[in-house]
């Protein structure tokens, strides 16, 4: 870890200004920043500590929407009664993220800024080529160990998987991220790697995440988060799905459906093709399984991650069918 | 120095009998560990401590052309930059068998690189952060050559035959060819790592020609010998201190390259130096379990009786070091067979030399034979438990000797009973719960009784308490506790009144804590020393004119609960403290050992500092082993291929248990490690770079609590006095053996799919 200077911001405005300076990085829970600094990826010149800012950790929920302050801890949001009743998928996503110790430290704003777990990205001393770290240097992952890499949204420049759980649930329910002046859909906040994998978020110098807002909906109230992984706890997903379902009054026809995928894509991945294929249809297993395959449209594997193309639609289907059973 | 006085430990359960041998006394070191009071080896605070970090090779094969240290040397706080050219000369040291060094000098920093992660330079600075910053500025250029990345590399070849591993009787090939039922399959185990919570590291301090090393160690005297030879000082000049060990699993028995660098830099600087490996360095600075390949062929009758076993094995080793993982160690003894053949090769690949990880040899060996017999059971349509009983080995098929004890039949019976094995539906894929396919598997395991000689000092102090000293160690297996129990029972005091001191090479010498030998060795030594101390005590009581027992005969005195009295209760009744006061003694001290009577000083040195004097487990008329049977239920998601272990019942024969609570805990630990091996653990190599990429605890998966169901362990052992002084056999290595095949067999039963490559990950099942 290199030397850096430390600034404690005493207002949101001061934090924004300090963070706008070259080489400055915001420190919230620190669970990503400290980790990346130790492995030599993050090399901040200035760390701007925002953990003491007042009023940024509030959680307010009613039927119409939820607002999560950027500094709200993952564990607090996960355990919030309103989140559990109005947005169960959000609570479940957080419960299954990281470990209890990390959830107690990490904030939801910081969680959106979490970087990929690509081992090549994380090891600069052994793998100099990484377009995400050093634009134009190449991609060490392509042709390497790819079991955990993305099959959706990849480019020639980068196949790194987006690791977070929370954002997968957020994009399913059209959540927005508040950046001060601008408010973006979470889906738009995350960028595809394309030719510029170093740019992961639509965030500008001087901007800071202050809050996340999730609109309430019937689909959000009847939602679930299914995470499939090698290990039962404390592991990133092999594939995961956040799904919300609203049925017509007949109790069997799908009125609204939200599907987002994770563990398979370079960003939180909304599967609109699955949603469109099933809206208006009667919910039954064959229909759901068939439609879930559409989630993998455009998928490209790199050998060892091929299983994700088989696995992810099964995860989507199981999640939808599980919601159907809980009528 | 570490002292545990269980008088103050809030860890007792049950009644006073807990403190006797065989009692369920809780670990006396437990409270110190739980509260954080336990100070581990490299947590010592020393004045003037400097900090060292290692610089590793980023290629897997080639030579170091140049190391540019200029930028690092001028960085603030830097005291020393070491390269192969600038490190002091270190002498070659003999190996753990005591073989003399093959080279006159030893360079812990490499010029020729044989694996990615090999140490090539080091930086010592005033602070850890300064050392890290400077190390990042070191520029290394290489001449790279092609690497052999693993066993499946086309360049790897067939390897080197290890003739000492060949075992043959009968005519196995002919009997196989003639057998009505023939099974042949290849089984692979992956490269695994010990992944102990506590990383490797040390603090080294020189005072003149005397070296003190604080380092987690499974073998103080063996490592002290290495340091002494490296630096050309007498063995007595090296003091190794290792009060607690945060997990060793076989990895912490030897002084390693980074250990030499820390000690050398301390000598060069004239200051104490601390060096702790990073987590990634813990994957490349010492070896984990070698990857293995086995082919097991079984020829059998339609009745499932084995007629022939032909076994071929390969394990990986390093380009510049030899590790043989004995792959036929279970194959050759588990089942009766009139014909047997096994051969083994090792293949050199560009890796750090593989090393010992829990039950080296027996563990992968059991994966082959215990899966193969399950395949045979399926082929002939016989229950997997029944086929094991039909082929039960009534004596050691290889050594042709009687077992000292073999409670494996009892293990099968009681495990099956508790598990409910008789309710198993034989057909694969015939049991389910919703989306979950349920499978039941069984496998057996074994581990030889490794024996050695030990010594200990026992003192009876003026206050009537008892002190035990040994340079053996406690890495969580319970040495502190069982030695307190042994001394308490032998002398006749409460376990509360025993203080055990371990983990300092200044104490009575001890051999390696490995191969499950330490408990048997050390209880025997403490028993002898304590008996001798007791004899002195009783001798004083009857012979000293000032003693109230002066007129009595020795054989009429009883020492119990810290008091001496005549058994009829009609004479004096005094405490040990009162007796010592009355005869004017402040202590009684006795050394005891289990060495042969005519042993020389040289024999003793060799016994404690090498493993050359281990006593073969087939010495004399008996073959000595621990045994176990695992019954395991898995649940496999039919869509996702995820495997979860949902039930484990294991019955184990470790002979007499010195402390059942601690033995059960060790068994469970082994079973948990076996679950990790079966389902999660695998060192994944980037084939282009020959480098492990999942070199951290987020990506190298070991089980979490959520992966582990309730585990029921049942002791079926009986005292085995052919195996140890007090009747115990090995505990710690045993329980992992057979877990992976039991899980693989259960997965087959659940899914109908036979996975012969570990770990059994979801993509192998969807």
CATH architecture classification name of the largest domain in chain B: 2-Layer Sandwich
How many angstroms separate the termini of chain A? 53 Å
Pairing-aware structural class of the strands and helices of chain A? Answer: alpha+beta
Helix content of chain B: 10-25%
What is the β-strand count of chain A? 12
Spatial strand order of the main sheet of chain A = 4-5-8-6-7
**Uncertain parts of chain A:** none
Distance between the first and last residues' Cα of chain B: 54 Å
Determine Rg of chain B (CA atoms, Å).
Answer: 27 Å
User: Biggest sheet of chain A, in brief?
Assistant: 5 strands, antiparallel
User: What is the CATH superfamily label of one domain in chain A?
Assistant: CO dehydrogenase flavoprotein, C-terminal domain
Strand content of chain A: 15-25%
* Overall spatial form of chain A: globular
Q: Looking at the structure, what is the overall shape of chain B?
A: globular
Q: In what order do the strands lie side by side in the largest sheet of chain B?
A: 4-6-2-14-11-12-13
How many extended strands of chain B? 33
Plain-language structure description:
- The complex is a heterodimer of chains A (327) and B (766).
- Chain A has 327 residues and is α+β, with helices and mostly antiparallel strands.
- Among the domains of chain A are: 5-49, 2-Layer Sandwich (Uridine Diphospho-n-acetylenolpyruvylglucosamine Reductase, domain 2), CATH 3.30.43; 218-325, Enolase-like, domain 1.
- In chain A, 29% of the residues lie in helices and 17% in strands.
- Chain A has helices at 12-20, 33-38, 74-78, 81-86, 88-95, 100-105, 108-112, 166-172, 186-189, 218-221, 272-278, 285-292, 307-325; strands at 5-8, 24-27, 46-49, 59-61, 65-69, 176-178, 183-185, 211-215, 223-228, 239-247, 254-262, 269-270.
- In chain A, the strands form 3 sheets. Chain A has a 5-stranded antiparallel beta sheet. In chain A, strands 9-10-11-12 form a 4-stranded antiparallel beta sheet, sandwiched between helices. In chain A, strands 1-3-2 form a 3-stranded parallel beta sheet, covered by helices on one side.
- In chain A, a hairpin with a 3-residue loop joins strand 4 (59-61) and strand 5 (65-69).
- Chain B is α+β, with helices and mostly antiparallel strands.
- Chain B has 3 domains: 2-38 and 451-609, Aldehyde oxidase/xanthine dehydrogenase, molybdopterin binding domain (Aldehyde Oxidoreductase, domain 4, 2-Layer Sandwich), CATH 3.30.365.10; 43-146 and 205-276, Aldehyde oxidase/xanthine dehydrogenase, a/b hammerhead (Aldehyde Oxidoreductase, domain 3), CATH 3.90.1170.50; 292-449 and 618-764, Aldehyde Oxidoreductase, domain 4.
- Mean pLDDT of chain B is 95; it is low at 1-14.
- The interface between A and B is medium-sized, with 32 and 37 residues.
């Amino acid at each position: 870890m290199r030397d850096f200077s430390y600034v404690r911001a005493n207002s949101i405005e001061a934090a924004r200004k300090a963070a706008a300076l070259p080489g400055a990085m915001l420190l919230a829970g620190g669970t990503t920043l400290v980790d990346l600094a130790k492995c030599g990826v993050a090399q901040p010149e200035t760390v701007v500590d925002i953990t003491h800012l007042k009023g940024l950790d509030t959680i307010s929920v009613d039927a119409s929407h939820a607002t999560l302050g950027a500094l709200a801890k993952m564990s607090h949001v996960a355990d919030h009664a309103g989140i559990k009743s109005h947005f169960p998928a959000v609570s479940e996503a957080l419960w299954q993220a990281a470990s209890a110790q990390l959830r107690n430290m990490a904030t939801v704003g910081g969680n959106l800024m979490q970087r990929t777990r690509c081992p090549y990205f994380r090891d600069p001393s052994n793998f100099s080529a990484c377009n995400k770290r050093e634009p134009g240097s190449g991609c060490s992952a392509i042709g390497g160990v790819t079991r955990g890499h993305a099959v959706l949204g990849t480019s020639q420049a980068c196949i790194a998987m987006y690791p977070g759980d929370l954002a997968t649930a957020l994009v399913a329910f059209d959540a927005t991220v508040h950046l001060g002046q601008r408010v973006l859909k979470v889906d738009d906040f995350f960028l595809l790697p394309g030719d510029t994998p170093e740019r992961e978020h639509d965030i500008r110098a001087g901007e800071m995440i202050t809050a996340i807002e999730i609109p309430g909906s019937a689909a959000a109230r009847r939602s679930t988060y299914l995470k499939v992984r090698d290990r039962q706890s404390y592991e990133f997903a092999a594939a995961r799905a956040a799904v919300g379902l609203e049925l017509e009054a007949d109790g069997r026809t799908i009125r609204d459906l939200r599907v987002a995928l994770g563990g398979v894509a370079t960003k939180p991945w909304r599967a609109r093709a699955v949603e469109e294929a099933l809206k208006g249809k009667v919910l039954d297993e064959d229909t759901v399984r068939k439609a879930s395959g559409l989630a993998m449209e455009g998928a490209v594997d790199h050998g060892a991650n091929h299983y994700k193309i088989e696995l992810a639609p099964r995860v989507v289907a199981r999640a939808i069918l599980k919601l159907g059973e809980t009528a | 120095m570490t002292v545990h006085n269980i008088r103050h430990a809030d860890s007792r359960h049950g009644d006073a009998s807990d403190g006797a041998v065989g009692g369920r006394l809780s670990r006396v070191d437990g409270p110190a560990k739980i509260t954080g009071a336990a100070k581990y080896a490299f947590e010592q605070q020393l004045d003037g401590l400097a900090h060292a970090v290692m610089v590793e090779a980023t290629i897997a094969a080639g030579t170091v052309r140049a190391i540019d240290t200029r930028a690092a040397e001028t960085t603030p706080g830097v005291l020393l930059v070491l390269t192969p050219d600038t490190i002091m000369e270190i002498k070659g040291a003999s190996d753990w068998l005591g073989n003399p060094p093959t080279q006159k000098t030893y360079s812990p920093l490499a010029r020729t690189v044989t694996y990615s992660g090999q140490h090539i330079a080091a930086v010592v600075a005033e602070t850890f952060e300064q050392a890290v910053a400077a190390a990042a500025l070191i520029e290394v250029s290489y001449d790279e050559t092609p690497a052999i990345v693993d066993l499946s590399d086309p360049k790897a070849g067939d390897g080197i035959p290890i003739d000492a591993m060949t075992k043959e009787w009968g005519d196995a090939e002919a009997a196989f060819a003639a057998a009505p039922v023939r099974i042949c399959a290849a089984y692979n185990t992956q490269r695994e790592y010990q992944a102990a919570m506590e990383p490797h590291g040390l603090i080294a301090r020189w005072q003149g020609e005397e070296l003190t090393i604080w380092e987690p160690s499974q073998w103080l005297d063996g490592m002290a010998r290495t340091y002494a030879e490296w630096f050309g000082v007498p063995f007595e000049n090296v003091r190794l201190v290792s009060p607690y060990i945060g997990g060793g699993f076989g990895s912490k028995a030897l002084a390693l390259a980074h250990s030499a660098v820390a000690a050398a830099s301390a000598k060069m600087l004239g200051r104490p130096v601390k060096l702790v490996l990073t987590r990634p360095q813990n994957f490349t600075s010492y070896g984990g379990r070698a990857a293995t390949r086995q082919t097991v062929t079984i020829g059998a009758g339609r009745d499932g009786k084995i007629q022939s076993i032909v076994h071929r094995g390969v394990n990986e080793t390093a380009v510049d070091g030899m590790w043989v993982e004995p792959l036929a160690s279970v194959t050759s003894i588990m089942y009766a067979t009139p014909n047997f053949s096994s051969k083994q090769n090792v293949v050199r690949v560009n890796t750090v030399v593989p090393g010992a990880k829990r039950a080296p040899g027996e563990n992968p060996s059991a994966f082959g034979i215990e899966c193969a017999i399950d395949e045979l059971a399926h082929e002939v349509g016989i229950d997997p438990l029944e086929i094991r009983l039909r082929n039960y080995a009534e004596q050691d098929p290889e050594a042709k000797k009687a077992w000292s004890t073999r409670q494996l039949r009892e293990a099968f019976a009681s495990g099956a009973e508790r598990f409910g094995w008789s309710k198993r539906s034989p057909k694969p894929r015939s049991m389910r719960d919703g989306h979950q396919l349920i499978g039941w598997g069984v496998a057996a395991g074994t581990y030889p009784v490794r024996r050695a000689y030990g010594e200990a000092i026992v003192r009876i102090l003026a206050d009537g308490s008892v002190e035990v000293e040994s340079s053996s160690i406690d890495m969580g297996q319970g040495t502190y506790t069982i030695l307190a129990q042994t001394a308490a029972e032998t002398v006749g005091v409460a376990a509360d009144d025993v203080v055990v001191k371990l983990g300092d090479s200044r104490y009575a010498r001890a051999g390696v804590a490995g191969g499950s030998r330490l408990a048997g060795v050390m209880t025997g030594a403490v028993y002898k020393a304590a008996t001798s101390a007791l004899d002195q005590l009783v001798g004083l009581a009857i012979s000293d004119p000032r003693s109230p027992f002066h007129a009595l005969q020795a054989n009429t005195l009883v020492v119990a609960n810290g008091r001496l009295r005549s058994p009829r209760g009609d004479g004096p009744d005094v405490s040990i403290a009162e007796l010592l006061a009355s005869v004017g003694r402040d202590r009684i001290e006795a050394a005891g050992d289990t060495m042969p009577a005519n042993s020389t000083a040289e024999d003793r040195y060799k016994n404690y500092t090498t493993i050359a004097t281990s006593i073969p487990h087939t010495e004399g008329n008996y073959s000595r082993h621990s045994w176990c049977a695992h019954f395991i239920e898995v649940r496999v998601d039919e869509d996702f291929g995820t495997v979860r272990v949902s039930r484990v019942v294991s019955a184990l024969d470790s002979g007499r248990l010195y402390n059942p609570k601690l033995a059960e805990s060790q068994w469970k630990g082994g079973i948990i490690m076996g679950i990790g091996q079966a389902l999660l653990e695998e060192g994944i190599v980037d084939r282009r770079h020959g480098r492990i990429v999942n070199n951290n605890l987020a990506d190298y998966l070991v089980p979490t609590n959520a992966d582990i169901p309730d585990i029921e362990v049942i002791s079926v052992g009986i005292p085995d006095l052919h195996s140890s002084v007090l009747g115990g056999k090995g505990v710690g290595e045993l329980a992992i053996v057979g877990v992976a095949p039991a899980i693989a067999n259960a997965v087959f039963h659940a899914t109908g799919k036979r996975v012969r490559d570990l770990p059994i990950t979801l993509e192998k099942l969807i």
